[in-house]
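Let's practice the habit of predicting before peeking. Look at the sequence and jot down your guess about where helices and strands might fall. Then scroll down.
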Amino acid sequence: MLLNASGCLDALVAPDVARQLDAFVTKTITPLPREGNAPQRIAETAHGMLNAIGLANPGRERFLGEMLPRLVVTLDIPIWVSVGGFSAQDYAETCAALDRSEAAVIELNLSCPNVDEAADGAAEIVAACRDATPIPLYAKLSAAHPDVGAVARAVADAGADGLSLINTLRGAALDPRTLKPVLARTTGGLSGPSLKPVALAAVHACYAATGLPIVGMGGVTTGQDALELIACGARDVALGTVLFSDPDAPARVRAELAEAAERAGVASPDDVFADAHDAEKHPHTRRKVTA
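Done guessing? Here is the structure:
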């Protein structure tokens, strides 16, 4: 299944692009509206981009009352809602409110590098959300943690149904003329091709640690990239930065994924699922992907 990475596609502005996906992931929603960080908030790098948007969004009330119903009618594909906050209670209250909506999955954004407010621990947030809703919960984790597999086990024990890996990593860019930071807050989240090796490592570690369903993302620009994430243990793949430059990326990557599988000598991408793992050490790695 192909999705978008949260925040990388406005489906109400570009519904034809969103309809190429198997499910659409919303921008992260917080309890109250947020304007986000001051500009400049975007910077290009040699192998990707930096963003410091800061979770700008209309807030929970407006999202539930106006935007989510429009997305459901406009897209006619499952909607995954990305939820953020600054305490376990923030997350849990939004999850409870989504119970009365048509959200198919809730993705808990536990890893945004572009806000200053500290949230509670990942497992504490997942546990509170698990008590608040029966809707499937995917925990979006950061690969910046020195042992992301341990974090994955903790959120799995707390009730997460799946994982989204990975979010951006903190980076900076300087103006070559002034040698001052390009971004107003100095740092932002790095995305794009340079993130792929980190994403592969995180997906591999977290699948080995938990066996949970994983949406793999980070630097995916081709079908080969997607196939490698599947081999590391991702059941589904999300496209991020590539959507800014190539609105046809979902259809193209889907076609290239089939071609990459053929080059690998298999009939379907399903057939390489978790092949990067040692099946004797990790028996659950022979589960099949539901693409």
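How did you do? The domain at 2-34+55-168+188-286 is CATH 3.20.20.70 (TIM Barrel).
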